[in-house]
Amino acid sequence: MRTLNKTVLYGLYLDEEILLDAVREIREEGNEIWDVFTPFPVHGLDPVLGLKESRLHIAGFVYGLFGTCTAFGFMTWVFTRDWPIIFGGKPYFSAPSFVPITFEFTVLMAAVGMVITFYLVCGLGPGITNPYLDPRITDDRFCIAFDVTGKSKDEVEALRALLNKTSADETNIKDI
Amino acid sequence: MSAVVSDIRPALIEGNKTYHQITEDICSPTEQLPDKNWFILILFTLGLFGFGAVSMFVTVYWGIGSWYLNKTVGWGWDITNFVWWVGIGHAGTLISAILLLFRQKWRTGVNRAAEAMTIFAVICAGIFPIIHMGRVWMAFFIFPYPNTRGPLWVNFNSPLLWDVFAISTYFTVSLLFWYTGLVPDFATIRDRATGFRKKIYNFLSFGWTGSAKHWQRWEAMALVLAGLSTPLVLSVHTIVSFDFATSVIPGWHTTIFPPYFVAGAIFSGFAMVQTLMILTSIAIPQLKNYITLQHIESMNKVIVLTGSIVGVAYLTELFIAWYSGYIYEQFAFYNRALGPYWWAYFAMMTCNVVSPQFFWVKSLRRNVLVTFILSIVVNIGMWFERFVIIVTSLHRDFLPSSWAYYSPSWVEVGDYIFTFGLFGTLYLIFMRVAPVVAIAEVKSILKTSGNQYVNANKEHAKTHQEEAAH
Fold this sequence. Notes:
The complex is a heterodimer. Chain A contains 5 helices and 4 strands; from the N terminus they run βαβαααβαβ. Chain A is of the alpha+beta class. Chain A folds into 2 domains: 7-52 and 127-175, Alpha-Beta Plaits (2-Layer Sandwich); 56-122, no CATH class. In chain A, helix 3 (56-82) packs antiparallel against helix 4 (99-122). The longest helix of chain A is centred in the middle third of the chain and has 27 residues, at 56-82. Chain A is elongated and about 80 Å long. By secondary structure, chain B is mainly alpha-helical. Chain B has a single domain, classed as Formate dehydrogenase/DMSO reductase fold (Up-down Bundle). Chain B is built from 17 helices and no strands. Chain B has helices at 19-31, 36-62, 77-88, 90-101, 107-132, 159-190, 195-204, 212-245, 257-283, 293-324, 327-338, 342-354, 362-365, 368-395, 410-433, 439-449, 451-469. The longest helix of chain B has 34 residues, at 212-245. Chain B is globular. The two termini of chain B are 26 Å apart. Classes of the chains: A alpha+beta, B mainly alpha. Chains A and B meet through strand 2, helix 2, helix 3 and helix 4 of A and helix 1, helix 6, helix 8 and helix 16 of B.
């Protein structure tokens, strides 16, 4: 189990609509939210939470481009430099018949590269156990969490009051 | 409630479900011991697998001469089965990728099982070209690796090699797409499990927490993977059709093959999804709330469309054969329809072109029994289509002295049965260890497609109109 050495105050909400309002209100009051956990992707949460758009698709494009160049370049090298063979009287550099493999390899590189990048940047992977706040988050609870490491009791209570004010169903403190 | 609910779209989730009930319904089959029927079924599929394993052994030990293929008919049941299984494998990606791009919400009910079916079907498909090589232990020769023979490379101009790349890419990308969708759902099971099961699901769920940033990346990736898989799925059967279309055999050498094969693949794939989903929801009754008549009807619409496209392709082939004025092409099609294999052609035409036309009738489209029977008929027809294309085009070639008739040996039939056993066993195991419906995705459409929300909104719209009329 990984540990983050954090003390986290979190509130659990019963519905994504309540959660969205709560996140909006908490951020408007100038508080910093450590993270929000939901059982499914809640649409409209990213702008409210101030998350920047993911750049994963740019990475995907780069991997795809790598695949295109590798496949086309390799086949060209094999058939014009390394071991030229005439197939059916066609030229050594028969570009149209390189298209299918170039396409497939592009897709393969983009998909595999992107999936590996996704797991790496998210810190997920086989055998990894990340600390989690509440088992019901993957079921039907929506969670707003504050990092309260080293904060005074008053500050923590102020945040807890804020969670309760925004209709949190329950609040807890956990060391993770 | 702020979610936008359409008042003309029917509900996709029945039974006034809450988020927690969705979790319960879909996780519970993985949490209890399977019932007696499941054990009977898996014994049956393992029996098929065992019988098939014997014929696989015979195939590999004595070579493919044990199939009764001859000099004229070099491709028989094996390549027929290969194309058939690959075709079936197309529905999963079509549902999860193309319908994601088209924002079709009904996809969430069936995508998980359909993708599992895709992966298992592609595994079954891949077996046939490999055993057809004869010396299966040399199968790695198909990959372009640096070797001590020069290195002598593979022929990158050959459609058979394109196939290697297409099928292996398709398998890998489908597997990644499927598994990434499963990770959050495995986390749901993990958080309910205890003891040893918790350890297993903890491993499978990759440490998923449900963080907002992770969900954002997860959705971004799903969208790009869908965008990549869409041309990929169309390319795979296109390339499979190139195996035939780039040859010079009359009956194979036609430019209509790529679209015709892709339509046929979607046709048979959706039929297989219907067969499996109907059986799965009999085994797990609470699934009927997630795989509703609405889902079945939507898939039947795809079946009637693609079945009709296939029908048009058959007729186009006949017309073009006549119109080409090329006697060998004309003979190939005359022989296909009226030659010694007329019964296969007849079976193909009846099952693929006539039978799906019943789905123009709404009441038949929404009838589970009719759908189930026709879904099996369609897949029989699609098997015959591949058999007709392969065997009838080969058995009477340019030289009448070489003309031959081909029937399979028990070994070749056994190899087909092997894949049924494999497919059935894998699917039965999948049904008990993984969530059959995508939990997170179904939850995300509950507020827009749950029956309690849809119907409330319909009533609201009605009263609103009445007020406006007054």
